[in-house]
Amino acid sequence: MVTADLRVHESVAAELLGRSPRTLEDWARDEKIPTVRVNRRRTYRLADIAALLQEG
Q1: In angstroms, how far is CA 34 from the centroid of its own chain?
Q2: What are the phi and psi torsion angles at 32 (to 5°)?
Q3: Which CA distances in Å does 18 have to 4, 14, 38, 40, 41?
Q4: What is the pLDDT of residue 13?
Q5: What is the pTM assigned to this prediction?
Q6: What is the distance between the alpha carbons of residues 39 and 52, in angstroms, rounded to a whole number?
Q7: CA 38 from centre of chain
Q8: Who's near 13: CB < 8 A, 6+ residues apart?
Q9: For the chain, domain boundaries
Q10: 1-56, pLDDT tens digit by residue?
């Protein structure tokens, strides 16, 4: 599911990036990818995911 402001939940972001949700947690902690917290859950902007894929 994509939110109105183009964010996805951690499991979707992990699938798009071909990584595990745990890896995304580590990346967020290391500030490799920014997150937005919503009700204690991390969400990721599609633009940030696309930027990581382009760095690839």
Answers
A1: 7
A2: -75, -30
A3: 24, 6, 23, 23, 20
A4: 97
A5: 0.87
A6: 25
A7: 13
A8: 24, 43, 44, 49
A9: 7-55
A10: 899 999 999 999 999 999 999 999 999 999 999 999 988 899 999 999 999 999 87
